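Weekly puzzle thread! Below is a chain. First person to post its structure in token form gets bragging rights.
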Amino acid sequence: MKTDGKDLNFHNGHRERLRQKFLDDKLADYELLELLLSFVIPRRDVRPLARGLMQQFGGLYSILTAPIDRLTEYTGIGRNTAIFIKAVHKIMTAGYKSELDGGNTKVFHNDKILINYCTLSMMGKDKEEIHVLYLDSDRRLLADDLHSVGTVDWVAVYPREILKRALGLNAKSIVLLHNHPTPNTTFSTDDIELTQQVAALLANVGIEVLDHYVVSGGIVYSARNMFLLK
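Winning reply:
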């Protein structure tokens, strides 16, 4: 489609205003997404696309953490754009992980970083996964292991494998982390029993289960904060 000079000037001027609003820290969430999309779709007005994605997925977290195939189902999002969005997601997750991994940040001395890391790691998955975060004596991250992948509403956990791995890493504590693909669902009875089973087994060798987090619908539930972990 041919674009006249007036439209092109407005298009370029709008994007420059977006960039300036970004520098001034005044962008709304949909405008932040619009700015992001403008770098990968440079010759199209992406405002309708950004607004549509926000409405369809419900927010930036849900867009960033959505699987590639779900993103490409949305009209206007091609494979390259979906990969670009997922690359941003990976960069954010890696950034949060680096704050927890081997640096000066103690996991439970910066809850905001940990919660963001949990959300970015686990949202958007259509099957339950359980991860185990192994921590050293100073509560820094030694490893984030994908323990197992299950179905939409169930995942297997092997407490003795967790114990074996913790001993191999010389971990002093662990954090359990899993997702519920169904939004806004907190701990099940099985989740609570499993948490207590793992905690009892590790306590025999002096390793503490600091917490168990469930990520569901953009919410991070804490077993310890809900008094489910003795």
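Puzzle host: Confirmed. Bonus trivia for everyone else. The chain has two domains: 5-91, 109-222.
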